[in-house]
Design brief:
Blueprint (H helix, E strand, L loop, with lengths): L3 E5 L6 E6 L4 E8 L5 E7 L4 E7 L10 E4 L4 E10 L7 E8 L2 E7 L7 E4 L3
Antiparallel strand pairs: 1-2, 3-4, 4-5, 5-6, 7-8, 8-9, 9-10
């Protein structure tokens, strides 16, 4: 089914489909930063990469994908969050599984560059 991005009213009773991606984009996770930018993290099933894209206009338009991790993602457990107390622009944190180990990557520049970490180190 792929990924679908919807917006809804404040009551959550009416929803509008804004964007739909192909079936090879799976396991989505989304967060929003202090400036209102949506960050969408997902697994590309074709390339087996963990990728992220962002939207500055409530989902109407999306950036080109940025690669967070480029190989060997174990699909199923990915997530993304935003911590506004870290750094000048806040910190995006992506979590995932690789080789049966919990891993994370973080970005201090709104998703442009990623640094890899190891939760189980």
């Amino acid at each position: 089914m792929g990924i679908r991005f919807y917006t809804g009213n404040a009551q959550g009773t009416d929803w509008t489909l804004i964007k739909e991606w192909s079936d090879d984009k799976t396991y989505p996770a989304v967060t929003r930063d202090k400036d209102g930018r949506f960050h969408l993290l997902y697994v590309d099933e074709v390339t087996e990469q963990l990728e992220t894209i962002y939207s500055d206009d409530n989902g109407a338009n999306w950036s080109t994908p940025a690669v967070v991790i480029d190989t060997d993602i174990e699909v199923g457990d990915v997530g993304i969050t935003y911590n506004e107390d870290e750094g000048e622009d806040g910190r995006l944190i992506a979590v995932y599984w690789k080789s049966e180990t919990r891993k994370y990557a973080y970005s201090d520049d709104r998703g442009e560059n990623w640094t890899i970490g190891d939760v189980d180190a």
